[in-house]
Amino acid sequence: MWRAFISSAWYLSLACELSLIWLPTDITAETLNLPRPVNQASSRPDEPFGLPTANVTTGALLDKWLKVKEEMEAERLVIRTCEENRASCASRAALQFLSIIDSGRTSGGRGRLGKINRAVNLSIRPMSDLSINGEEDVWSSPLTTLGIGAGDCEDYAIAKFLALQEAGVSLMTFRSWSCRTTSGGRPRRCSGTA
What we know:
By secondary structure, the chain is an alpha/beta fold. It has one domain (2-31, 56-193): C8orf32 fold (Roll), CATH 3.10.620. It is 41% helix and 16% strand. The protein contains 6 helices and 8 strands, in the order ββββαααβααβαββ. The strands form 3 sheets. The chain has a 4-stranded mixed beta sheet with strand order 2-1-7-8. The longest helix is centred in the middle third of the chain and has 25 residues, at 60-84.
């Protein structure tokens, strides 16, 4: 069963062992129980999957996003430097990320989305935050994730988010969402972007 927690999205990817095209058929909305207020989201009724959505304006989820966004801005400088002179790039993770971006730039539309989705999925081993960081629910920037070579659902989604942007997908097409699913008796948190 799926439960949409924080959402405001078009569907692109579910990083938790799901493919780019797969859509869950058993989805239920759940009342948001956040410690701080949220504003009602866009009037688009189909975000995601026809479920109600909310924009997060305060709280831990927003704080996590702002922290990783700041890290991504710093990583953009590394990526730009390496893109200008790949031969002298000292960051293996930046070179790997550039390869992912390049694979997406060779196609347009859904082909671009599919190539980046696949390249990120093949570059990162699924591993829990607890195993990697010693704590749960840590959001890592793309170069950090690629440097480790492992990550969880949010890490996949964040890497795809930045790779798609760098490959030329407009920021206006992006939204992000989170959900919680019970798979094999274990709760999982998934994120996606589009």
